[in-house]
Amino acid sequence: MSTNTKPKNTSAYMAQAAIAFAVSLFGTGAGIAYLPLDGWQRAFLAMSGLFLVTSCFTLAKVVRDQQETQSLIGRIDEARLEQLIAEHNPFKSVS
C-alpha cells in the first residue's frame, strides 16, 4: 500500500534551480545587450527570450498540474478499491 506523502524538494535543489535560472537569464540578457545589432534586432531577441521564459513556466505548471491530477485520481481509485474489499464478505450467503 502506498503512503500519501508528497515528495519534497531539498533547499539545496531549490537554490540550485534558482541560481541556474538567474545565471541563464543574466547571460542571455548580457549576450543580447553586447551583440553588434540594431535596436530592433535586440528588442526582437529580448522579446523572444522573455516569451521562452514565460512559456517554460507555463509548461512546467501544466506538467505539474497533470501529475497532481493523475495522483489524485489514483488515490480515489485506491480508496474505492479499499472500500470494496472492506465491504466484501466471502461467507455471506446469497439469497
UniProtKB/TrEMBL annotation:
The chain crosses the membrane at residues 12-37, 43-63. GO terms for cellular component: plasma membrane. One of its GO terms (biological process) is DNA damage response. InterPro entries: YiaA-like, YiaAB. Residues 13-65 form the YiaAB two helix domain. Keywords: Membrane, Transmembrane, Transmembrane helix. Pfam families: YiaAB. This is YiaAB two helix domain-containing protein. It comes from Nocardia fluminea.
